Structure formats: C-alpha cells, structure tokens
Amino acid sequence: MRVNPECQEKKEKIWKDCVISEAASDNLLDRRKLGAIIMFVYERDQIRSRNVKSVWVNAAPWQRDIVTVALESGADAVVVPEGHTERTHKLGRIKTVAPDGDIKLGKDAVVVEVSNKADEQRVAKMPPEQIAVLRMRDWKVIPVENLVAQRQKLFVEVKNAEEARLMSEILEKGVDGVLLKSQDIGEIKQTISVVKRISDKLSLVPAKITRVALLGMGDRVCIDSCTEMRPGEGMLVGNSSDAFLLVHSETIPSPYVATRPFRVNAGALHAYVLVPGGATKYLSGLRSGDPVMIVNGKGDTQRAYVGRCKVERRPLLLISAEAESEDRKRPVELVMQNAETVRLTKPAGTALSVAAAKQGDEVLAYLTEGGRHFGMKVEETIAER
Q1: What is the rounded distance in angstroms from the CA atom of residue 282 to the CA atom of residue 348?
Q2: Would you tell me how many other CB atoms lie within 10 Å of the CB of residue 64?
Q3: Residue 207 pLDDT
Q4: pLDDT by residue (tens digit) across 25-57?
Q5: Separation of alpha carbons 333 and 320, rounded Å
Q6: What is the largest CA-CA distance in the chain?
Q7: Which domains does the chain have, with CATH numbers?
Q8: Residue 239 to residue 205: CA distance in whole angstroms
Q9: pTM for this one?
Q10: Do 131 and 147 form a contact (C-beta atoms < 8 A)?
Q11: Cα–Cα distance between 297 and 203 in angstroms, integer?
C-alpha cells in the first residue's frame, strides 16, 4: 500500500508530541495504547477536515454588500481583488482569498479549468497542501468524482445552492468546499445554509426502557447552545462512552415554563456527550465556545457551539434501557434531572418526558464500540457500569 508522505509526516508528528507529553508527565503509556491514540487523533482530524464543508463567496470586483452578506451568513472566506484585504477586514473577521490575501490565490489556492482527462490528471498531481479550485467547463460530475477519490483540499466553483449541494454530497463524501459565483443575495444566503447543514448521519437504534429509578440530589448540566433547535432535535448523552440516549431539546411547550430552544437538559455532570469528530466530553468539562453536536430523530447531525453551561443541584433519576446490537442486547443508561420538562426522544422523533417514562417505553439510542481515553476512542477492554 502506498503511503501518502504528508499523512506519514502528520502521524510522526503526533507520535513525537505524545511521547514528549507523556515523558514530561513521567507517566508513559504502553506503545500499543499510544499507537491507538495516535491513529484516533489522525483519523479524527481526517474526518473533521472532510466533513466540515467550506464556502467561499466571490466578491470580485469588490462589493461591500456581497462581503457583508457573506460575513453575516457564515461564509468561510471571500474572494476579493488584490489590495482589498484590509478593506474587507474592516467589515468583520473573515478570511480573504486574493494574491495578497489571507489565502494566497495562485500559491495556497489555484483555480484550474477542467475540460478533459489531462486537466483532471493535472489536478490529481498538484501538491497536496494546495487547494485546487475546479472550474468545470461543461459541468460534468464524473471528473469531480474521480478527483474526490484521489485527493483532498478540493473546491469547485458553483453558481447556486443546488450545484453546491450536489458537489458537497458527491460519492457520499463531497468536495471540501465550494466557491460561489453569484451576485444574488438570496442565493448566497441559501447556498451557505445548505452547505453548512450537510454533515454525518448517525445510525440511531430503538432502546427499550427496563428501569426508572429515583435517586437523591445531585448536580446536573444544562447545555445552552448558540443554535435554535427544533422539535425532534437534541444531543446524545450517556453514562458510558459507547452508549448514548438522545436527550430532547427544550422545544416543547409547557404550562410550567417557556420553551428554551437553545437548551438541552443533558444529565448529571459525570455523563458523556458525543461531540463532532466522534469524540466525547464529560458534561462537567464543557465550556463556552466548545463544539457540540445536535442530532435529530433521523440521525442527521449539525455542529453547534456552547454558549454556557448551567450546573445546578436537582433531584435525579436513572434511566436504564437495552438496545439490540447484532446478536446481543446492550445496556444504555443515563442519570437525568427528575422533572416534567426533561425529555428523551421516541423512535418517531417525538418527545417523552422522563417523569412519564416507564418500563417498556422505547427511546432512541446510539451505540459505538471500544473505550475512550481522554475522550478519544481506543480499542481496549473497558467496562463501564
């Protein structure tokens, strides 16, 4: 198997950093575990770079209204003429793509017109650190599919949201980003919205509740995100790092309190929450600005960010459930606040209050394999009870 030199160099750097870190703490891991951690970090970074799609918006010749709408809609960069980077930065924090920009056009990113097989091969041989921006003369999908299978850092020029969606989902992996060439303000907003919502899909499974046990007082964590959630959406939280329940957001009207569509009353502070890249975090470790993952009943995901976390002492209960995994049943548990407004998610995507939950009820769960080391998935024997 041919090893990509850039990939090998990255693995070696991770190995070196891990060894230095562990030696400094005088707590050396065995090489097998350290190797597993290195592979996880590398693969996690590959997943993150692949699944977080970028949108660049063309604003050349320089147009203030185009730059402003790109900035306000969440674009990653704007293409501007040479000499306009400072002018652009005065409007807000956004990267520029220009010969003298934050991303150097012609050096960091190269626009390549693709009209035949020779052009396709030329792109495949470009340095891996360069961003290849494809300008498709006849707008054919096959050359893009071929290149997606061969390299990363691949962008495609598009004219609208539909073309952007197609390129972002091609071969179920998609290009790394799109460059939108449109003067239509509505099209710019729609394209950015469409691309940013494309993400991984998780396979959720039904889990049958086997026990609801009242506990005493304890500390629970509410995650207040910077995203407005909809009914059917929430976050995956669990007592163990390989089995999670879909905790519903506070989007259901109640006679007791107003809805808080940004909030998930996630569970006791010891629990794990699944975050982007397949890693986990303890609820107790979440801080403002940390990325979290919103999930709906179909398994669709989107990245969000923590605005704040509220840790408060409340009465708790334990939800125990079982889910089918291949030829065996797997336990799924979570300690949650005992309140009417705290909910899990049913297989139909509707909410189930934990105050009404009983043995035999079905809720949605997500199962993974292996243990965790500092939130990273590793292949070793770990039993969490």
Answers
A1: 28
A2: 11
A3: 97
A4: 444 445 555 555 544 444 444 444 445 789 999
A5: 5
A6: 70
A7: 5-42 (no CATH), 54-196 (3.20.20.390), 205-378 (2.170.16)
A8: 17
A9: 0.66
A10: no
A11: 10
